[in-house]
Amino acid sequence: MKPKVFITRPLPEEVVEPYRGRLDIEMYPEDRPIPEAELASKQGEIDALIPMLSEKLGEEFFSNTSAKVVANLAVGYDNIDVTAAKKHGVTVTNTPDVLTETTADLTFALMLTTARRISEAEDYIKNDQWKQWSPLQLAGTDVHHKTIGIVGMGRIGEAVARRAKGFSMNVLYHNRSRKEAAEKEFGATYVSFDELLKQSDFVVCMTPYTKETHHLFNEEAFRKMGEHAFFINTSRGKTVDEQALQKALEEKEIKGCGLDVFENEPISADHPLLKLENVTATPHIGSSSMETRYRMMQLCLDNVSRVLTGENPITPVT
């Protein structure tokens, strides 16, 4: 009998079909978060689970599941209690590497869109407001030759730094440890968190979410950035105190921000940050290109296949 795999969203059949010969794959048929009760009803009859970030898996799940592997369809895994998984002998995997360049593209695009007021300009012309040319019409801020401060110089942070060098930017970074290879390749300078905030024109959050990074960007951090600076976050929403960010934007303590992630997702149109003109927002689409999302799906299925046949997974969470 083939191992049973449950996927909490419908994936394209062209991705799943090549694996059906060795795996019994069932997918939740609706493209929305699976109800907790329905997921609970599956947990004792599966060999593997492929969840999304919206599925929160803790002690209750791992103490009652028959799954041997949980392959998270994301690089982040703060939705999974990895300690509980290990305690109950469940392997957890994620999808690093395959989304690095795509997320870096989105990060840089968000930075450019925010600085050059592209979303405002698009609304301006679509709302038939363009009636004349004037010297400072929708004037934004240059990105080239400015200073970018990257908080979290992991794979994606390095990919952002590589793009920044193409714009002749000065690259600063703060990380738990120095990355001498990145310093050599990008001419990046390692600085303290405080120095990065004070010196950067663009502060880019690339750090994963942990207890230590919870609300790392708070009222004090935004105050140190200064009125010339932009804040960009394509990492995790809970690294930011959104009330402090709102205050900093409303009181012009910082110039603007670009956000792909929020503390509690999804958000609604009445979210207070969306009401501010100096905010550019996207709905957590950092890795959302067709090519990358397909590779992420395939990596999850490859990890599941390997674990269920007694092999080591390609990308285990350790």
Q: Quick recap of the structure?
A:
Belongs to the D-isomer specific 2-hydroxyacid dehydrogenase family. The chain is an alpha/beta fold. The chain has helices at 13-16, 36-42, 59-62, 82-87, 100-115, 118-126, 155-166, 180-186, 193-199, 219-225, 242-250, 290-308, and strands spanning 4-7, 24-27, 48-50, 69-71, 91-93, 147-151, 170-174, 189-190, 202-205, 230-233, 256-259, 279-281.
Could you explain the architecture of this structure?
This protein is of the alpha/beta class. The chain folds into 2 domains: 4-97 and 290-308, NAD(P)-binding Rossmann-like Domain (Rossmann fold, 3-Layer(aba) Sandwich), CATH 3.40.50.720; 100-281, NAD(P)-binding Rossmann-like Domain (Rossmann fold). The chain has 12 helices and 12 strands. The strands form 2 sheets. It has a 7-stranded parallel β-sheet, sandwiched between helices. Strand 7, helix 8 and strand 8 form a beta-alpha-beta unit. The longest helix is centred in the C-terminal third of the chain and has 19 residues, at 290-308. The chain is globular, with a radius of gyration of 21 Å.
